[in-house]
Amino acid sequence: MTRRVLLYGAMLVIVVVSLFPFFWMVVTSLKPDQDIFTKTPEFLPTSPILDRYVHLFDGAVPRQFLNSVLVAGATTLITGVIALLAGYALARYKIPLKRYLLIVILSIQMLPQTVLVIPLFVVLRNTGLLGTYQGLILSHLALTVGLATYMLRSFYLDIPVELEESAMVDGASRMKAVRLVVFPLVWPGLAASSIYGFITSWNELMFSATYMQQSDRETLPVALQQYFSSYYSDWGGVMAASVIFTIPVVVFFLLVQKRLMQGMVAGAVKG
Predict the structure, then answer these.
(1) Residue 168 class from Cβ within 10 Å (0-12 exposed, 13-18 middle, 19+ buried)?
(2) CB-neighbour burial class of residue 13 (10 A; exposed 0-12, middle 13-18, buried 19+)
(3) Distance between alpha carbon 229 and the CA centroid of its chain, in Å?
(4) How many CA atoms lie within 13 A of 263 on its CB side?
(5) pTM to 2 decimals?
(6) How far apart are CA 197 and CA 141, in angstroms?
(7) Beta-carbon neighbour count of residue 117 at 10 Å?
(8) Alpha helices by DSSP H, 111-219
(9) Which pLDDT tens digit goes with each residue over 134-187?
(10) How far apart are CA 97 and CA 75, in angstroms?
């Protein structure tokens, strides 16, 4: 009984600590400016205001929101397809120098983003993709594909190759065996890599600010900068925009939560 009470208590503490920043963000977005900077901040706003949210939807935020959804959604989809196929190839086929190829893939993930800005800028400029959605999506793929491929390779390695061989003995081709037997089992890994790809693309700022100079193609991370200046920071506006900014990530996580939990359990009972 004592152990169960301690376990539930620890879970409650974790939930409160995890959700409190989001709660405080929502509360701050509803407070008047004079209440935000008081020496004794109030836990709940005495006179909540919705003007900041009205201002957001009256401005360019809806367009910027759609831009972010488009870029992050396309990046997640393409990352998933590439990682699904590349991860299988790295897990099942005998590729020359495969160990070194894996090291290169992980090494790319270790590169600071600032190192990639200029080379990608030159590539996008020379190909005519600078300032386009396609160019920004390609630059985001440089941040997501490597680790997503490595993650899915690990999930493929956990699937016994005998399952594919049994399907092929029954008359299925390799592609049919992979599609009907392997892909359904690797769904948890795809969910985990999709969450990683979506969050990485959704939060990305440096590439978006550098390559997307047109105001009608700005993403939300770039739009958040308008609330900061050399002499003043609109923290209420930042918090209101951050609430809008956070909602799609939460929704996307809830959509793939079941698959992700399956993957975590599968990894916990490996072997």
Answers:
(1) middle
(2) exposed
(3) 28
(4) 21
(5) 0.83
(6) 8
(7) 16
(8) 113-127, 133-157, 161-169, 174-177, 183-185, 187-203, 206-211
(9) 999 999 999 999 889 988 988 888 888 888 888 888 787 878 888 888 888 888
(10) 28
Helix or strand run (H / E) with residue 87: helix 61-92
- State the sign of the Cα–Cα–Cα–Cα dihedral 146, 148, 151, 153: negative
Query: How far is the C-alpha of 166 from the C-alpha of 196, rounded, in Å?
Result: 33
pLDDT for 271 beyond 50:
no
Q: Which tokens go with 20?
A: 């409190």
Closest CA to 252 of 262, 243, 240, 260: 260
Residue range 24-42, pLDDT digits in tens: 888 888 888 777 777 676 7
pLDDT tens-digit profile of 104-122? 888 888 888 888 899 999 9
Nearest to 237 by CA among 217, 223, 247: 223
Q: Give the integer Cα–Cα distance in Å for 173 and 179.
A: 10
What does the DSSP assignment read for 157-181? HTS-HHHHHHHHHTT--HHHHIIII
> What are the chain's domains?
1-49 (no CATH), 59-268 (1.10.3720.10)
The 8-class DSSP code of residue 182 comes to: I
Tell me what the mean pLDDT of segment 193-204 comes to: 91
The single-letter DSSP state of residue 59 is T
